Amino acid sequence: MVASLQPLFTAIDAVNDEQDLKTDVTSKLGEHFAANRSGIFFFDQFSQLDPSLRKIFKVALSIERNPIARYLTERHAPVHEGLVTSAKVWQMICPRPDHWHVMAGPIVVRGQLVGAVGCTRDKSMPAFDSQHLADLSGICLHLSMWAATRSSPPSLKSALLTARELQIVELVALGRTNAEIGTQLWITENTVKQALKRMFRKLEVSSRAEMVAQLSAG
User: Which of the following CATH numbers is that of domain 6-151: 3.40.630.30, 3.40.50.2300, 3.30.450.40, 3.40.50.410?
Assistant: First the structure.
């Protein structure tokens, strides 16, 4: 049976800042994915790290050296090591036994990659699979919306929309089709279509592009 994501969504909605997010949500993230290690990272905080740690992170997140970092940067989509490289190559890139299996997902605000969510498992555990990627996609979308609402005050227009409608807007902005949005949010394609019609009326727009442009302008 697939575990519900609702406890994680509820935990994300309840926190007020990044520190609480890392304290209260990271543990639930690890539990959901049965991960040895899990974390939520915002890139703007790396400059505050100790120089030696900053150097480690710079190498770890290098798109030239790390295929997972490259995938996140280019696609803004969750990934595990099996999608981008072979087990033998991954062991050479990341020989740590507690990072034998790695999965990461993007936190995106206004089209920019601002952070990442990561989980790792050791050699004795099974690899992350497609269901884990689907779950992480939903979590990353929720975190992206959380980060967006805290990086700047919501516009008067976006205040007209519900949390679910704002999730749909974010996916529309990423170019997702109605069917893809439905799959990612665990709702039917028709539900997405009806939601978009309702959102168009609220915002007084007639197209997806006009809706995204209006909300992006704030």
Answer: 3.30.450.40
